[in-house]
Amino acid sequence: MIRGNDRNNIFYDEEDKLRFIETLYQKKQDNAFFLHAFCLMDNHVHMMIQEGTEDIANVMKRITISYVFYFNHKYKRVGHLFQDRFKSEKIEDDQYVLALVRYIHQNPVKAGIVKTAGDYKWSSYIGYMQDSHYFHKVVDTYMVLGLFSADKVVAKRQFDEYINQECTDKFLDMKEEVSKMDEEDARILFAEMVRMQGEDKRRENAAMIEDMLKEFSGRTKLSIRQIAAITGLNKDKVNKMLRS
Fold it and tell me: Which of 7, 64, 68, 156 has the lowest tally of Cβ within 10 angstroms?
């Protein structure tokens, strides 16, 4: 697990998350390591990595150096992005493997961002379920699916059922606390989201406003009052949209 310095975000938009995943794919070539699961949250990343031709310390160094170079160049910043050294925990039995894969994919569910693991687009879940998806070539699915069944169709079904079981698994003694974004950072984020959607589209499409508002709420964890003040929307309207 790697976390942003001072728990700050390490991803500001979807381009950042895609760049991190592309970095994982590039760095794992020639069996440098095997990636069995991942989940990207705004300020941290969970990964289940099996060493290949490189040891874990070198793997993580290559991944983080590459991403930090991209991030600092894009946002015209300098200095550390990640907090200290990565945290790791050794996995040595099959049940532990499965429990960790479930824990990783349930991260956004437990954070209240989505209702099911399959609703979250920045984890390896979709790589397990859809062979045609780009993430399928990024994640090494064979080991985990093989623990369910030699029949791939059966294995996928059982994987899906297992991942979505309610559980209380905990790893790395980590509490996935919900931290609010600073209001000034939230204003910057909202302005960027509006710019990306297009001001005209935002006015015309109520569904688009609602979707954007839910994403904004999930990423910032701000109160309804704070969201209303930043977006300029009526507090009751914000409340209604977020509850729909």
Answer: 7
The one-letter code for the residue type at 165 is: Q
- From residue 15, alpha-carbon distances to 19, 133, 179, 180 in Å are 6, 17, 23, 22
Helix %, strand %, coil % for the chain, to 5? 55, 10, 35
Whether 141 and 127 have beta carbons less than 8 Å apart is answered as: yes
Q: What is the DSSP string of 162-223?
A: HHTS------TT------PPPHHHHHHHHHHHHHHH-HHHHHH-HHHHHHHHHHHHHHH---
At 13-48, the pLDDT tens digits run 999 999 999 999 999 999 999 999 999 999 999 999
How open is the CA angle 167-212-210, to the nearest 5 degrees?
90
